[in-house]
Fold this sequence. Notes:
By secondary structure, the chain is α+β, with helices and mostly antiparallel strands. It has helices at 3-26, 34-49, 67-74, 159-165, 170-176, 198-205, 221-234, 274-283, 320-333, 347-351, 355-361, 422-425, and strands spanning 53-56, 58-62, 86-90, 124-131, 136-149, 185-191, 196-197, 212-218, 242-246, 261-271, 286-292, 340-343, 345-346, 372-376, 386-393, 403-410, 418-421, 442-448, 457-459, 471-478, 496-501. The chain has 2 domains: 28-292, no CATH class; 317-504, Jelly Rolls, CATH 2.60.120. Strands 2, 3, 5, 6, 7 and 10 form a 6-stranded antiparallel sheet that branches. A 5-stranded mixed sheet has the order 1-11-4-8-9, covered by helices on one side. It has a 5-stranded mixed sheet with strand order 12-21-15-18-19, with helices on one face. Strand 8 (212-218), helix 7 (221-234) and strand 9 form a beta-alpha-beta unit. Helix 2 crosses helix 7. The longest helix has 24 residues, at 3-26.
Amino acid sequence: MSIRIFLLLLxxxxxxxxxxxxxxxxxxxxxxPESIEKKAQNLIADLTAQGYEVTRGYxxxxxxxxxxxxxxxxxxxxxxxxxxPYITAAVLPWHEEFMDLSTRNAFGLMPKGYNSIYRxxxxxxxxxxxxxxxxxxxxxxxxxxxxxxxxxDEWKGDPIYNFIAQFGNPQILKQFFDYSPNPKRLRIFxxxxxxxxxxxxxxxxxxxxDQERFFIxxxxxxxxxxxxxxxxxxxxxxxxxxxxEPVSSTYKAGLHEEAYDFxxxxxxxxxxxxxxxxVWRKDLPLVVLRVRDKNxxxxxxxxxxxxxxxxxxxxxxxxxxxxxxxxxxxxxxxGQPDAGAKPIIDLQTTVxxxxxxxxxRGMNCLGDTQxxxxxxxxxxxxxxxxxxxxxxxxxxxxxxxxYVSLSVYPASTLSGVGSIEHTHLKDTAKGYAEKVNNxxxxxxxxxxxxxxxxxxxxxxxxDMVPKGESFRLIQRNYIKPNxxxxxxxxxxxxxxMVILNGGKL
Length: 505
């Protein structure tokens, strides 16, 4: 072999090696089963042959460790659920897509070229192929408006703005009404409609967990139809396994700076077998593709505003007397009959925490979902011997929730530092059964700087909430049984926060 031929072969090998190395390092991949990968490759090949433009992204976890980036970028961690890290799609931008660098790390550090926040080309679809996780209390996939152009003029005279402003706390007001780091844009982080959750998936396809399922997110009905056909051709076994999240024309699509930007999240909470759930979260066996029609002559087929599913609930008013008796019994047991007691605020009825409504008024919805109800406190302090008793109805026992969580947040950062689930709330009121009826449907749980010997109590250490800092408590009631959505909070009872003096023990 001549030296020239040898050198040419060596260069060719090096080019291949460098190319493979570059691809492996610059293109994050999730651990995807062969059957999903094959369908994804079939889909990419078919769509590319049809003339579509296709790029591939990946999924990553957004949990407490990533909160530092959210706080640095956006000022808080969106009131994240500490029971379950979120799963976020990261995608490659189209070549002409405006990238708002001020929010790029809002969900964690992004590899070069990728972003978790994106704009929608009017002729685009996002396609997700994946093996859904092992059985759990909840799985849901949902898209959000993250920011949009706007100004504080939209807040003038708004009843929710005025309601929050009356508390005289600029920090609370800023959490709901504020600009993004880009002063031309408002924080919205509001859901665009109904999620595709495990109930919706089961109702349509017969099963959700441990199943291969496929999702289309698009502002263009034409793309929905064509992507359905392409998925079936690529190996999706049945149309009933394909789920669509329509993006209303109300939400300004486009790749230009003035367009809305979006983020897509997955929630997966309380797996039946924690080890199996942790493996799924580690692997994230999902593929996300961006696909767009390069035919710009064709007019998109937009969607109308999505009609939100109706919520229902089993009325809890019949428990109101028992709840009030339990509050008084807690005070009596502590020997503090004059202790203060305040209802925890229902965020659905008081601040209208509903994504499309938040968008209309330019309000931050903090990553809402219609799959739960939210109740939250104002600011609570810990460093003067305060002990707080949360007293409420337990929605898993009143048939109004599949799971319940009480979560603790430093008030300034809204980063979840701890959570108590319904299994730990159950039976905590039974010690009051001699004076209170229906204690099997109620709970009493305590929060203090140091619980000591207090039963059913969560210690909020100074590492969680620093000295002098206040905290907030948020209750979530997820999915009313036999429905696809969270309970109607107008039919349930909000918990009561009893403020006790631990120094008098």
